[in-house]
Amino acid sequence: MGVEVVSGGAVEAVAPAKEVSAKVEVEAGAAAVAVAKNMSFREESNRLGDLKDAERKALAELRAKVEEAIVEGKLFDDDSASVKVKAKVEPKKKEGKKKEGKKKKAEEKKEEAAADEKKPEVAAEEKKEDAVEAGEEKKEEEAKEEVAVAEPAEEKKEEAVAAEEKQEEAAEEKKEPEAEAAAEKEETAAVEAEKAAPVAAAVVDKDVALWGVPLLPSKGDEATDVVLLKFLRARDFKAGAAFDMLRRTLRWRREWKSLAATAADGDDDEGDALPEGACVLDGADREGHPVCYNALGVFADEAVYRSALGTDGGKKPARFLRWRVRAMERHVAELDFRPGGAASLLQVTDLRGSPGPARKDLRVAMKQVLDLFQDNYPELVARNILINVPFSYYAFTTVFFPFLTQRTKSKLVVARPSKVTETLLKYIPIEAIPVKYGGLKRDGDTEFACEHDAEIAEVVVKANSTETIEMEATEGDTTLTWDVTVLGWEVRYTEEFVPADEGAYTIVVSKGRKVGAGEEAVRNSFRAVEAGKVVITVENATRGRKRVLFRHKAKSALAKKC
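Structure (tokenized):
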């Protein structure tokens, strides 16, 4: 189904880094061992020169359709002309059906009359044959008498049928003038409506825009083609289907009142603010895409759940839907729709502590969001990563997957709790991954604000072995600060300061301890009053190798701020 699954028993999703020797000496100012960056996903180029001939042709066709629709003021039309044509054709069809019905009725009556004529003759012949066989000539005479009696009765029936037909024809002749008069009135009203229509369409909005990008191609904005390409890719480069999708999106945005609260004004309706941490932008991936983190665990709280999934008297969409639309609008405002820019998001959805599939209201709301985003925000999510996925999720996906397009499925990555950091590291630098997901990024962090402080080094600890990391303090009164994270942890971790003077005592910075799988990155510092080094020991007693990523800085008391 095109979904990349990363679980504990699967092959590692991140490419292995180069192994480092048992002791790694890192001096202040010396170049650190660079982390081997994993190959990230590559979305299609938005540059015209990179498009195939068929794709360029489809883009030109869509540009022409959009240009014509905007200039003629028909971009928001909902095919009213075709509706009028159908309205005119329907009365004619009804008249034809009435005439056909009359003919059928007349034919049926004639057939019935003919059948009635044959009935007495057939009966007489049968009686005659019986009389001949039995030798009873009297029965034959009786049959003749019956035929003679039946003929006058049949003539009376025919006269009655003819009288009924005449009455029906007279009634229909009376109705026809009335029907014709009504049809003439309808045609007159349709003509008047057609005459009035151009007056309404005369107001042309050439400044119509989508996501802040003008849609009129003749304006020459280079971002216009990037937006149009998103609709084309969502419809397999079928210009007609892409144009219809664009028009539906514009109509939806015009009708969706909750879009009034945008990132610019920041004013939400009372009670319509997102729960803290539910949906936030934080950092960028390796390709420069803004990263959006969604935490469904906030809806485990009963009060938040009821507030999110309640409706306002059934007159407005569920609050959850409004939240997500407004959040999406704010996030789209951060995108760069110029050719070569980051024109899509990397979305990370954390399922830890989420209410789960048993909550029907949340499941329905999420499906609504999914449908709405697929229809009105095409190609704005470059990759969708689900992390901390419980086992029950795999049964839950059977409900969602039928509603996903094949293209959406190909962008989906699923990671079990033991592989969260390793999976995110495929797409996001370790320094941009939040500490709660095993990365090194901390809110409001100023320790590693300078570029030369953010250099990352890596050590690989083989199974059943120990590695050390050494950070040098070349002079006294130096403060050493470091961040360390181990992918998957489950190791024994120790920090010590070893003075350069052999006669001095080793100082324990942090006692040896077993660090579990769910541990966040370690942040610590030590002020060395004399020259020496901080030694970090990582002991791996598991059967698999461990990747240790770290950064550090040494700041002398006399050093200037960056």
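The CA atoms of residues 75 and 137 lie 91 Å apart. Residues 80-201 form one domain.
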